[in-house]
Amino acid sequence: MNRPASRSILRTGLAIGAVLASLPLATAAGATEHPAGHPAESHEAADGARAADRHGCAVVWFDLGETLVHTAEDESTAYMPGAAAYLRELRERDIEVGLITNVPPSWGDTDAKRAAALKKEVDKTWKGSTPFAWKDFGDRILTPRTEAESKPAPALWERAKKNADGCRLVYQAETAEETDAAAELGYVAYQVGQPDRPAFLPARVIEHLADGS
Fold first, then answer.
1. Are 84 and 200 within 8 A, CB to CB?
2. How far, in Å, are 131, 140, 155 from residue 136 at the CA level?
3. Per-residue pLDDT at 56
4. What is the mean pLDDT of residues 149-164?
5. For residue 4, cis peptide bond before it (omega within 30 degrees of 0)
């Protein structure tokens, strides 16, 4: 029997549809070319600068296991299909990313120590041809300080929200339990890997959400 759609899927689906409907259709070439020195060139540069000034911000938080990284039966790890390219696209668009993931609190008494232990655990079993993009996440790797903080308890999402600095918050994970919990706290939540939908929330949708669309 098919499981009913989660609240976060329904809300996010409506948001995606509204944003995509508002986006202009791109030309096959992506833009009209102008000869060097053409007045339109300077106008486009000025428009780009103004757009940059207006551009908002968003932080895209992810679960790790079975969202960005897959653990095989032999316990080796590698990127989920499309995850490496998706992270690269977010990086190219200057969209910040973070991890909200459960690890044993005994791995360290700070987020930094637990994150270092997590990196070692993932890297020692990594079989992907492309290393995991730890640099993209910087110090935005949140892990539970106690068992009580482990997801789906709200503590980690609340901690991320306190440091949002006004940016729009997105959370992507493979389970409806987690996306529903994040949505209840005001995140734009997206359940990855669902049929008939993009594997991840499209980057251009995130940009428009950041701009308040």
1. no
2. 12, 9, 23
3. 81
4. 97
5. no
Helix axes 203-210, 7-22, angle to 10 degrees: 80
Q: What is the pLDDT of residues 93-128, one digit of tens each?
A: 999 999 999 999 999 999 999 999 999 999 999 998
Count structural domains, the chain: 1
Is pLDDT above 90 for 77? yes
Please tell me the distance from the alpha carbon of residue 99 to that of residue 11, in angstroms, as a whole number: 22
C-beta of residue 201 within 8 angstroms of C-beta of residue 189 = no
Q: What CATH number corresponds to the domain at position 135?
A: 3.40.50.1000
Residue 29 banded pLDDT, cuts 50, 70, 90: very low
Is there a domain that residue 201 lies in? Answer: yes
- Give the domain extent around 132: 56-210
* Residue 130 to residues 59, 67, 149, Cα–Cα distance (Å): 23, 17, 32
Contact at 8 Å (CB) between 173 and 63?
A: yes
pLDDT for position 43: 41
Contacts of 17 (CB under 8 A, 6+ apart): none
Show the tokens assigned to 143.
């892990």
In a domain, 17, yes or no: no
**Beta carbons within 8 Å of 47's beta carbon, 6+ residues apart:** none
| Residue 152: inside a domain | yes
User: pLDDT category, 11, cuts 50, 70, 90?
Assistant: low
> Is 147 a domain residue?
yes
